[in-house]
Design a protein that fits this description.
The chain is an alpha+beta fold and 205 residues long. The protein has a domain of 99 residues. 55% of the residues lie in helices and 18% in strands. The protein is built from seven helices and seven strands, in the order αβααββββααβαβα. It has a four-stranded antiparallel beta sheet. It has a three-stranded antiparallel beta sheet with strand order 5-6-7. The radius of gyration is 23 Å and the shape is elongated. The two termini are 24 Å apart. The N terminus is likely disordered.
Length: 205
């Protein structure tokens, strides 16, 4: 396979985390501005009535500061998640960089790879609440499903690390929503073919 080092080491950003940020940033900014209003109100009360309501304004000020910090932290956290999460193919394994820790699995676990749509994996009529809001603009997107013989760690732990949309709802496998899904599918297929060729050579000796 004639690929440059940059192509071999290409990181495919996981778009589900970008969607997660877009869905949650509205609430994060609403909390931030609510906190700003509370802080401004408390400061205005202290300025207009420095003696009579200073004590009453202090709890309002503290609550406002906490809400501002929480809204800002929430916004930045989901933004960071959207920037650092990716999937990357190497000659030895596939790495999924989650927002918390990387998950790595070898090609020997792979049974098959296939493109499909999120609509096929997560039917709209079965999604409720926040799950539906997360997917409502993505159902037509093509994803790469990597069917596995087994997960590299427990499914419950993977679900905690990744959320529900990187694991196939039925069976055992990962779901990769990336912009260049054809490039990712091609890399997985090429590296899988190389791994099988190496394994076959080893068995012949």
């Amino acid at each position: 396979m004639n690929q440059s080092t940059s192509v071999k080491n290409k990181k495919f950003p996981l778009l589900i985390y970008s969607r997660y940020h877009r869905v949650h940033r509205g609430l994060s900014m609403a909390l931030f501005w609510l906190g700003v209003v509370l802080v401004a109100t408390a400061l205005l009360l202290r300025f207009l009535h420095p003696r009579s309501v200073t004590g009453d304004a202090r709890p309002l000020l503290m609550i406002g500061v906490v809400i501002v910090m929480f809204g800002l932290a929430r916004y930045l956290l989901t933004l960071v998640f959207s920037r650092i999460a990716y999937v990357q193919c190497t000659p030895r394994n596939i790495k999924i960089q989650t927002p918390f820790v990387p998950v790595v699995f070898s090609y020997k676990r792979i049974m098959d790879t296939r493109p499909t749509t999120l609509r096929e994996l997560f039917p709209p009529d079965k999604q409720k609440g926040m799950r539906r809001k997360m997917l409502e603009q993505l159902w037509g997107e093509t994803v790469i499903v990597v069917d596995l013989k087994g997960y590299p760690m427990s499914k419950s732990w993977l679900r905690t690390l990744m959320g529900p949309f990187l694991l196939t709802p039925k069976g055992t496998g990962f779901v990769f929503l990336v912009k260049d899904w054809m490039g990712l599918n091609r890399q997985i297929a090429d590296y899988l073919e190389q791994w099988r060729a190496r394994t076959s050579r080893v068995r012949t000796f």
